[in-house]
Amino acid sequence: MDARTRVAVSAVLALGLLAGCGDDAPTGATAGEPAPQATGEPWYDEVAPASPGGTTGGTGSPCPVPVSFPLADGWTAKAIEPPKGELAELVGEALTKRGGTTVRCEVDGRPAGGGFLRIWAADSPTGTPRAALEGFAAGAGETVAGAQFRDLRAGGFDATEMTWIATNPLAEEKSRNWALAIQSAGQTLVFAVNEGLITERTDVLPAYRLAVRGLAPGK
Asked: How many angstroms separate the Cα of 77 from the Cα of each of 82, 99, 167, 183, 189?
């Protein structure tokens, strides 16, 4: 992404049109086992899942992906629409594509005091969950550092989870990111949250944990 596009993306995010690899240090269990408990940095497994307030996913839902998952109380799912107007051609793809993935939906927690959980689908059906995560982390035009991976069980699926620190090259802000990838019905899906200027880990991790621990095949 060139400098002009980055500036345009930042402007769109500021207007609210669409809110918004490092050291390889694998940790945790083998695929198929429950998530290990790692207190504190970087996983913060002591942060408990949120209380459920509904479900989404599957054909005909606001999140049309081949899985279903629980929504945190007060969080709502919605499809992502490309931005419109004079900036659409410049930033539309930049906001809906990232590192070989395309965004499918967003779960908005702002009314409940949280941030966002976004679900992305890998463009290639042959890629592994880990490859999808590596591409996703590197695909935002940010500096990625301190990447760690672990294999675990996420609801009814074997999954790979990644956490990393991203530095925005424009604002020079650092943020901790978490993402988990699974394969279902020939697709690789990425569930991603991050800390931000106005969100902390306790704002985003409970809804993320609830969603990924409750993953089930969609209908």
From this structure: 16, 23, 28, 21, 16
